[in-house]
Specification:
The protein has ten helices and 15 strands. It is α+β, with helices and mostly antiparallel strands. Strand 8 (155-156) and strand 9 form a beta hairpin. The chain is globular, with a radius of gyration of 23 Å.
Length: 331
């Protein structure tokens, strides 16, 4: 193997490989290869973003195929900061539920066909610890959203924006970094939350700025669009336990005793059997779904354009490049 930091990684054929000698002499992975690299002919496949698909397809025609690979361990969400001083209504579960009912996630996904699958809780549906029974799908329902806001004590103003119990207009920021899908989520949130009487100030900022701001206990943050890449083990302690430090992933300062007990049991037992751990995570997910600390959105697929020259390459969830010894390259 050869490696040029931040440039490429070269894998050289191992004739003693236990499955037999690979068919290619070498495979070079270019760091940062993108749609432009693919169109210039520098690589035989590259990951593309949803908003690039039509453009790339227009150039490559039938000389390449689009491959979609589900990423079940990755999901996108809107986090609601429960200690925000600018938006104190986020501490009320009914308001957070209203925000889930007030966002048309299915309609959003139709704008990016095949790119995402709805999620309703933290544990991915592909996990052995998942059980979707009892999870609220929060189907788009403006009437239900307004009902919940009013049950929480909000009153409609003459400008079409609800006032909170302290009289302030229910206006808040949602922050995210640049990117086609996240910008689309933000744009939909601005439009659709206005329809239920909540004003959104959209903020698009560099990823480094977003990460620096979205920290546990930062009361200057209201809502934010973010995502997690999980591991195959369902342990969620670092994301949801209330006793964690400001270095944790509990970015919304969520605190719930039942969830604390569930994530502790899932991690520490005393019964560490799969059945007992699954029961703990089912409880955790049902509470998280009901509490709506996140507006759970979708898991995203990876999109690749693969040149017709590259033969027999398999791209599968959890199993990228596992048959690399069988790859062939046509002239």
């Amino acid at each position: 193997m050869e490696r040029t930091p931040a440039v490429d990684i070269t894998l050289v054929r191992n004739d003693r490989y236990y499955k037999g000698p690979p068919l290619l002499d070498r495979v070079v992975f270019h760091v940062g290869a993108d749609a432009a690299s693919f169109l210039r002919g520098e690589v035989t496949y590259a990951e593309v973003f949803p908003d690039e698909v039509a453009r790339v397809r227009g150039f490559v025609g039938k000389s390449a195929q689009l491959v979609q690979v589900p990423r079940p361990l990755v999901y996108t969400f809107i986090g609601w900061n429960e200690v925000s001083t600018r938006a104190p209504w986020l501490a009320d579960k009914r308001v957070r539920q209203a925000l889930s009912y007030g966002l048309d996630v299915e309609g959003l996904l139709q704008g990016f066909p095949g790119v995402g699958t709805r999620v309703y809780a933290h544990t991915p549906s592909s996990s052995w610890a998942y059980d979707g029974a009892g999870l609220n799908a929060y189907k788009y329902d403006k009437t239900k959203a307004k009902q919940l806001l009013e049950e929480a004590g909000a009153t409609m103003g003459t400008d079409g924006i609800y006032r909170w119990r302290d009289g302030r207009a229910m206006r808040m920021r949602i922050e995210t970094n640049n990117g086609a899908v996240r910008r689309a989520v933000l744009g939909n949130a601005v439009d659709e939350y206005r329809l239920i009487g909540i004003a959104i100030d959209p903020v698009v900022e560099p990823f480094a700025t977003l990460i620096a701001r979205v920290k546990p206990g930062n009361k200057d943050v209201d809502g934010f669009i973010h995502g997690w890449q999980l591991t195959s083990d369902p342990d969620a302690y670092g994301f949801w336990h209330s006793g964690l430090s400001t270095d944790s992933y509990n970015l919304v300062s969520f605190a719930n005793a039942e969830v604390d007990r569930a994530v502790e049991a899932g991690r520490n037992g005393p019964d560490c059997s799969d059945a007992a751990r699954k029961s703990a995570y089912v409880t955790m997910n049902r509470v998280l779904n009901d509490e709506a600390a996140y507006a759970f959105l979708f898991s995203t697929d990876q999109l690749f354009f693969v040149s017709s020259r590259l033969q027999d390459a398999e791209f599968k969830p959890y199993a990228m490049w596992t048959n690399i010894e069988r790859w062939r390259l046509l002239p």
